[in-house]
Amino acid sequence: MFVPKLEKSMGIEVYASHSSGIGGTIKQFIEDFAVEEILVNGLKAEICPSKGYEKIKAVNKERHLLCVLIKRNWDTFLALREIANQLKINVGKIQIAGIKDAKAVTAQHITIEDVTPEDVRKIKVKDIKVRPIKYFRTKISPYFLLGNNFHITIRAVSHSKEIIEKRITKTLEELNTKGGIPNFFGHQRFGTIRPITHLVGKALIQGNFKKAIMLFLAKPSSFEHLESRKCREELRSDLNFRKALRKFPKQLHYERLMLKHLAKKPEDFVGAFRRLPIKLRQLFPQAYQAYLFNKFLSSRIAHGLPLNNVDVGDYVVNVERSGLPMIRMYTIVSSQKLSDINQAVKKGRMRLAIPIVGFKQSLSKGVQGRIEKEILEKEGVSKEQFKIRSIPEISVKGELRTALTELRNYSLCKISKDFANPSKKFVKLCFTLYRGSYATIFLREIMKPRNPIRAGF
User: Fold this and answer.
1) Does 75 participate in catalysis according to the annotation?
2) Do residues 141 and 40 share a domain?
3) Are 45 and 68 in contact (CB under 8 A)?
4) Any idea what the Cα angle at residue 401 is, between residues 70 and 356, rounded to 5°?
5) 245 φ, ψ (degrees, to nearest 5)
6) Cα–Cα distance between 196 and 372 in angstroms, integer?
7) pTM assigned to the model
8) pLDDT digits (tens, 9 = 90+) for 52-85
9) CA 171 → CA 157, 183, 401, 443, distances in Å?
């Protein structure tokens, strides 16, 4: 089955289902992609709260104010920076459980240190709302995140209602037979318009900091704004950082942070990289980890190895009652335990896991291990290189990630005429995914887009 070149560049080389897609476009309007975060304690961040919040009582020694951040068409990090500016605090005092889509309407939990509910209620930023809820015992982190509810509208679908229903049903049947959705890292992990995040990460891991910086600053994309593309091409040609600083558009905020440093110290590439916020810096090696994981998973599927059944040498992880995988409770399948473990996998108590490469994470054994080793050799990297000595704060230890993710609370909510695209239909889907899993990976199986960028990915 045809897989777009763009997806292959992200390591997503296969589909889990072979049924025809419905086509269409996501994110034609910002409201077409709505995300609401759910915490493990059951708290849900609602875009439109069903009820008001109770009066907030401060308890001694509680410094972390839990809030719901609702944003429309905002990058998560830029939204946090704007909130910090309004509160006149360091952005490091604001913590999140997970990064949310930029081109979307999203609701998520954040904690803010050493502020009052009254301070938060004074925040006024276009397309951002921050609602204080209560004081929290600690700062929030991914540990507290269960998953996300998605409300997705797919527009410009050309088929009849009957064909749409038939194709979606067939795709879901295939995915259920496989045991779930392949747990690829999604398009936004790499940057769909300019998918270079993992390339920068690879250069950092290989210790080539100049290459990493120039990829970030000067690798153009035919899909980005013409002004930005021309600025990048010019910088790549003349390496004139001072001129680039004058010309780069203001919306390229992070690039301009680097250029300000390089204009003064043109050889200090490590220093320039450190001008970026720490969470953004860490994303680059993490994106390369994600690329390698996608390659590992794609190759397993391409080799015809099952995802809901394991073999000797595979990693498996335990599963909590909530459905969350317990990635630190793992074992490598032995021949003696193969039958018992496959029974546990069948009952949903264990899942197949694949390594996210890092300096402390060992590869799988057996057939899967040979696949992983061959990919690393072709990439020209070793797990030891993920300890980045010149920039230790972005070193990555590695861990495990399940090969499949479960689709929960799925509903085909509506199929109707799409007045924004005459003679076409729109399809509204609602579903829940566990933390770390991407809605776009499920949607690509449903839609089978030939051009992910035109399709809104």
Assistant:
1) no
2) yes
3) yes
4) 105
5) -60, -35
6) 22
7) 0.92
8) 666 776 665 678 999 999 999 999 989 999 999 9
9) 16, 16, 24, 11
Residue for token pair 């990829």: 215
Residues 69 and 214 in one domain: no
DSSP annotation string for 32-72 = GEEEEEEETTS-B--SS-SSPPPPP---TT--EEEEEEEEE
Q: In 217-242, which positions are buried (b, 16+ CB within 10 angstroms) versus exposed (e)?
A: bbbbbeeeeeebeebbebbeeeeebe
pLDDT in tens, 357-395: 999 999 999 999 999 999 999 999 999 999 999 999 999
Taking the C-alpha atoms of residue 43 and residue 7, their distance in angstroms, rounded to an integer, is 34
What H or E segment, with its residue span, contains residue 25? none
Say if residues 421 and 156 touch (Cβ distance below 8 Å). Answer: yes
Our measurement of the distance from residue 126's CA atom to the centroid of its chain's CA atoms, rounded to an integer in Å, reads 25
Determine phi and psi for 177, rounding to 5 degrees.
-65, -35
Considering its fold, how many domains does the chain have in total? 4
* Residue 179 sits in the same domain as residue 135: no
Read off the CATH number of the domain in which 441 is found.
3.30.70
Helix (H, G, I), strand (E, B) or coil at 143: helix
- Out of 32, 101, 311, 314, the active site residue is 101
Residue from 404, 395, 311, 410 nearest 353 by CA: 404
